[in-house]
Design brief:
The structure is a homodimer of 326-residue chains.
Chain A: E1 4-8, H1 10-15, H2 20-35, E2 46-47, E3 56-64, E4 69-77, E5 89-96, E6 103-108, H3 110-128, E7 135-139, H4 143-155, E8 160-164, H5 168-180, E9 185-188, E10 201-204, E11 226-229, H6 238-241, E12 246-249, H7 252-261, E13 273-274, H8 275-279, E14 293-296, H9 301-317, E15 322-325
Parallel strand pairs in A: 1-6, 7-8, 7-10, 8-9, 10-11, 11-14, 12-13, 12-14
Antiparallel strand pairs in A: 1-15, 2-3, 3-4, 4-5, 5-6
Chain lengths: 326, 326
């Protein structure tokens, strides 16, 4: 009999019903493995079609023995896509049988990317935010603003959201979700300072820029706040960043590559810890109520490979997807 | 409307009817682009599940602007698979729209890998073998032995094949193909020397080994012979290799990585030329009747990306494959 693989479209992946809580748990297990040096994750190479070098298609391979997961995510980011009515991020993930190397599944990676990125933010917050955090500021209320809110809401007793965005339509969708699905109080703010000062947790999730727009100034971030910089350091003035007591990332090798070879993260604080070090207890998380703590997670292939076996198992159990001959 | 992608199984890919002659032409165009520095091809990273480190799954991304092709091949090699009745090489190729980054197709890569590898051998032979070559020796008559014979037969007036293999069943299949499909005279030899001496072209296509078995000794290779070492340097004693007048490869960066970082190609002759340099005329091919010329091509992602647009176009034209929502 011919070997068969399972194909899952973006709708199929979402239809598996995998919850954010389950994704956070899987990503945490993955970071524990990574923190203990038990994940194989080579650098992610890519190609850059088109003019200007802003388009990318990256190969993100990883192997997590403890989770019996190996595969690659092949993900593109084209900044010009939204103007064409197409998503910025697109791609597929191939999930392999670690025993034979044969592909077991091909699945759309957009949903997984959105969810696991937010899960990593929440995981950083688990170790770096105050556990009673209830007030959150979201700057840029798109896909990542929304999924980050969802993920933080799993781990923290959130009550109130200060939402900042320059696109009213995006803010409306976000507000509807926060109020009616997550049952949170939302206040839309016109001054970005009001989505930072007075918040326990802040998520910046705008466009990633090599030259930061530095909207957030020194003095805006209160003592005791945790910030997840989903858009790298784009939102922060250097003076504001230098108020950080702890500046962390998900993977130091990749962080240094982005900093030294690609020009991001210039004049940022030194990295205090990798997320794997926090999860394994090799480095302490928050140590005082008044610390300003930051996570600048770049996203790693391990996260995708930690999540995709759960998607695969649920899809098989629920008869979701299309079986295809190899 | 949802974006759709085309899925092509291994049978679908073969059913497109793309010919070896067309594949050689596409691979030659790709090497011309590469020789002129117009291909983006980062190093191929991979993961290595299982004990011992012999298993691999590699990501092979490439972008060829002139051929409007970008994508990745995610290909595994598990030496233990044949004992389980599974192929050694398995994998999928994702072909992307260079304008939007969206995937256009996912296809099985086994057929493409087998064909394009042989096409590169024949292309090296086009520049390094004598044009009137009619006698060929094939050492190891498996998939690569067979496709290499097919590819050489496209470019050279082959008449006679000396076939050496230790597996009688494999030799029988090979012989049947060579005689009845390619109409060549086949002589099965028990002494490997008889598949080397007296031949115009020799292809070694056995298992790739870090410690070469060195079956072929100094003095076996006649003057004027071209050798394609599909299995790297595994077949050759160092003395035999040192009789090479020209030792070439497909990509020097990758060759040096295999040599310096992975332990292959120890004590081999210095590389005279990359295949792209031969195709673009930056280096001369064969310059004298009596030169012993060698190609040790390792296989590059560019070749896959040069071939897959042709497969895609033919499949669409012939209504082959399965359309799936992204």
């Amino acid at each position: 009999m011919k070997h068969e693989i399972l194909y899952l479209s973006q709708d199929d992946v979402a239809a598996t019903g995998l919850t954010m809580a389950e994704i956070i748990k899987a990503v945490e297990q993955g970071f524990e493995e990574m923190g203990n040096g038990r994940v194989e994750m080579p650098p992610k190479p890519g190609v850059h079609p088109g003019e200007g070098g802003d388009n990318f298609i990256h190969a993100m391979p990883a192997y997590i023995p403890a989770m019996n997961s190996a595969g690659v995510k092949w993900v593109s980011g084209y900044p010009g896509n939204p103007a064409k009515g197409l998503p910025y991020i697109n791609g597929l993930l191939i999930f392999n049988d670690t025993e034979t190397g044969l592909p077991k599944a091909v699945m759309d990676c957009s949903w997984i990317t959105a969810m696991r990125t937010a899960a990593a933010s929440a995981l950083s917050a688990k170790y770096l935010a105050r556990s009673e955090s209830s007030i959150i500021g979201i700057l840029a209320c798109g896909v990542q603003g929304t999924t980050n809110l969802e993920a933080m809401n799993v781990l923290f007793p959130l009550k109130k959201v200060f939402a900042y965005d320059t696109l009213p339509e995006q803010t409306a969708t976000f507000t509807d979700y926060a109020q009616n699905v997550l049952n949170l109080e939302v206040e839309i703010v016109e001054d970005p300072k009001n989505a930072v000062s007075g918040c326990d947790i802040v998520v910046t999730s705008g466009p990633i820029l090599k030259v930061p727009h530095e909207t957030i100034k020194a003095g805006w971030v209160d003592e005791g706040t945790f910030i997840s910089c989903v858009d790298f350091d784009s939102y922060f003035s250097r003076d504001a960043l230098n108020q950080a007591d702890k500046w962390s990332t998900d993977n130091l090798t990749q962080y240094n590559h982005y900093k030294d070879d690609m020009g991001y993260f210039q004049n940022c604080p030194p990295v205090y810890a990798e997320l794997g070090e926090l999860v394994t207890g090799k480095k302490n998380g928050r140590e005082a109520e008044n610390e300003r703590t930051f996570a600048a997670n770049l996203g790693v292939a391990m996260e995708d490979m930690a999540v995709c076996p759960l998607i695969y198992d649920l899809a098989k159990k629920k008869n979701i997807g299309t079986w295809l001959p190899l």
